[in-house]
Amino acid sequence: MDRRGFLKTAAIAATGALAAPRLSLAADSKTLRFVPQANLANLDPIWTTQYVVRNGGLLIWDTLLGVDDQLQAKPQMAESWENTPDFKTWTFKLRPGLKFHDGEPVLAKDVVASIKRWMVRDAPMGVPIKKRTDALEVVDDRTFRFRLNLPYPKMPFALGKSSTPCLFIMPERIALTDPFKQITEYVGSGPMRFKKEEWVPGAKAVFEKFDGYAPRAEKANWLSGGKRINFDRIEWQIVPDGATAAAALQNGEVDWVETPLPDLYPLLAKSAGVKVDVADPLGNIGSFRLNHLNPPFNDVRARRAVQIALSQEDYMEAVVGDDTSLWKTLPGFFTPNTPLYTEFGGEPLKGKRDYDQAKKLLAEAGYKNEPIILLVATDVAITKAQGDVTADLLKRIGMNVQYQALDWGTVGQRRASKEPIDKGGWNIFHTWHAGADCVNPAPYTALDASGDTAWFGWPKSDAVQAKIAEWYEAPDPATEKRVIADLNKAAMDDVVYIPTGFFQFKQAWRANLAGVVKAPFPVFWDVTKA
Amino acid sequence: MLSYIVRRILSTIPVMLIVALFVFSLLYIAPGDPAAIIAGDQATPADVERIRISLGLDRPFLVRFGDWFWHVLHGDLGTSIFTNLPVTHMIAQRIEPTVSLLILTLLISLVFAIPMGVLAAWKHGTWIDRTVMMTAVMGFSTPVFVIGYVLAYVFALRLDWLPVQGFTPIEDGFWPFLRTLILPSVALGLIYMALIARITRATMLDVLSQDYVRTAKAKGVGQRGLLFVHALKNAAVPIVTIVGIGFAALIGGAVVTESVFAIPGLGRLTVDAILRRDYPVIQGVVLLFSFAYVLINLGVDLLYTLFDPRIRY
To answer: B253 with B181, same domain?
Structure first.
């Protein structure tokens, strides 16, 4: 062999040796490597309402009831329940053989303690139930009972809903923790146990299959049915950079990315070995939140001025892009394609935008070019995009907008201020609501118009509140639909807030995974890996 | 010498005290509310307020500072607001990736940058000099995240030689450990390399024009001996200074690199803590960094004595 031949052979050998080991770290079919939407910084799903904590909690803790993809609450840890015709007494019986990860049996006292902690923190449904509860009592080891002083027909939905905080069942000793303090033990009766010793917050969280879990016999459907896990380990890898997460998925280093960057959907869709599809069929509703306490938006005419000028198309293109299969305009407050969806009263958000009329309404409301404080969390892509569109919109209708670029932590603090503008108050901020929280008024904090006790912005509308109360008492689906239509119109008339549109995100996973479903949360049960 | 080292280490105490007070004050007046983040987007204002009280964030500044400082004096940096884990535990979890990244970056940079600088000075005015300087300018001008993405695309996605992201601890094997660090170290090291190469070239040019170098040449000292024994040693003091300053600056660069390559190091811990307003973690990490800066400066001062016998402490 001459010198050139030797070098050529050596180069081929070296290249081959380096390229040979395919770096597919996700090769083990019994380990699922998942990139969640955010860092799992803690694991108390009652103390915090962050979705990522709820999603981790769904592996560790089981729920008493669970909603399916029709939003119907089905028994989960409960074997059965019964209620009196007046909906004042509810009796639940637990399935036999339920065990916590520490080997202790799940008893009615554990459930009662868990419900009591949850009721303090779940403002939309738990707190109203607590107010109506005369007694929440253990009947025997597997049975407990609510005795209410007012009817609450929505009890099964409340106990099985997927919106945060979910009712997770914890051992009594843990559930007795102050609801405003964080638990320190993560012991549940769900299908996986949390490996606290492997937890590196901000980097990794590991869940290990719990052999003592007793799944239901029925097929899994969202939070209901048999939660059969086909992995020994589920590793959550926190990858803060969206482009890196996408590259790791393409390279086979992770199996599933919950929320890839929308800009990268086309790239991932074209990548060999990667699948991309809508993550949550219930999607999200963008929110233009006005402060009803400060001028000019304490006057409904000023709120209507913005409402009739706002183009949802502009917002959705800014948030999601030009793939119209992922967004639609939303002349209403409720989640599209769900039973109570309505557009009744939604005319102000339809048709051509009317800047002249908006300016006229602002003048009638007495607006005289005062600064409008727009709080924009620029570290969150969705709020940043909405904020940019709003700044442009307000200028178009002649408002003196002050765009305050902040991070989400600061917006979270500033929006709590009820002070006037000259004392650090605000006029507008943006957020979005998970579609799962907007399927009916119960979990829908943003639609509450009770004034001082309402969500940030503190809208007050007696008409809206009357319809919400009427819905709680509605005896049948037809009545519910009628009431919700009226509620939609009342909320639109009083401009509780302005929806900026309905949008969906996609999830992406390696093609060797099967069983990935669309849901408002990642569903790990029934997923398999070849 | 020993007394000097002891004095220097003792002098870090007032420095760190001032840093602690400054950071605590800064965080106190900075906007942002961890309680609002914990409570989540749908929480009511009343819930946020109750969480704030349960975390003790409603207490006066001096009470909070005094409480924190008392614990620091006892070696307790506090507990993370969010994870409920001790800050020392969280730092211990994150220190290996960051230290590994910085050391490998330093090694790669020195191995390439000093010969490049020497070569450029030796071949001053030639195409070699211009090529080295052009490379250095490019290294300076290209942001770490751009270099990171390009490297990941080429060496991970296209060639499939190295992983895109993550970190493998050294106890899981040296090669897996090294493999996860090569791309981030190169990405982070390019700016550092450029800096050292330019300084080396400049100081070497200065030294090479000195009389004693000419004398050495006249006496027949070979090129290698001239460059690396006579010239480089005398050019070392400014190089060591810039290596020290640059190494401290690398800690800042590590924040971006760790995010791009999903390395669970102290940089990411700091960013996460700042975004969440996890005050105990921010304070703990800043204290650690300030101590590291002081130690690096001390190390640089001590290295001077190796290269220049005239320097004595």
So the answer is: yes
Is residue B140 within 8 Å of residue B191, measured between CB atoms?
yes
B93 to A200: CB separation less than 8 angstroms, yes or no = yes
**Which token pair is A305?**
């001025």
Q: Could you tell me if residue B313 is inside a domain?
A: no
Instruction: Tell me the ipTM for this assembly.
Output: 0.83
Whole-angstrom Cα distance, residue A77 to residue A349? Answer: 43
Confidence of residue B42 (pLDDT cuts 50, 70, 90): low
Which one of A163, A243, A412 has the shortest CB-CB distance to B36?
Answer: A412
d(CA A136, CA B172): 52
Positive or negative CA dihedral for B52, B279, B92, B169? Answer: positive
Cα–Cα distance between A18 and B161 in angstroms, integer? 6
A45/chain B closest Cα distance in angstroms? 10
The C-alpha of B176 sits at a distance from chain A's nearest C-alpha, in angstroms, of 11
CB distance from B264 to chain A under 8 Å?
Answer: yes
Check if the beta carbon of residue B66 is closer than 8 Å to that of residue B281. no
The confidence score (pLDDT) of residue A6 equals 42
Instruction: Render pLDDT for B191-224 as a digit per residue (tens, 0 to 9).
Output: 889 989 999 999 999 988 888 888 888 888 888 8
The pLDDT confidence band at residue A61, using thresholds 50, 70 and 90, is very high
Collect all residues with Cβ–Cβ distance below 8 Å to A173 and sequence separation of at least 6.
none
Which range of residues forms the domain containing residue B60?
2-73
Looking at the fold, whether B53 and B197 belong to one and the same domain comes out as: no
B272 and B160 both lie in a single domain: yes
Checking if the pLDDT of B137 tops 70, the result is yes
- CB-based contact (8 Å) between A431 and chain B? yes
Put simply, the chain B residues between 104 and 143 with a CB less than 8 A from any chain A CB are none
Nearest-5° Cα angle at A62, A60 to A64: 160
Query: Quick one: CA dihedral A210, A213, A217, A223, positive or negative?
Result: negative
Which H or E element spans position A156?
Answer: helix A155-160
pLDDT of residue B186: 94
CATH no., domain A284-440+496-503: 3.10.105.10
Which residues does residue A328 pair with via DSSP β-bridges, in sequence order? A502
Q: For the whole model, what pTM was predicted?
A: 0.86
Question: Dihedral of CA A116/A118/A119/A120: which sign?
Answer: positive
Do the chains contact at B42 and A414, CB–CB below 8 Å? no
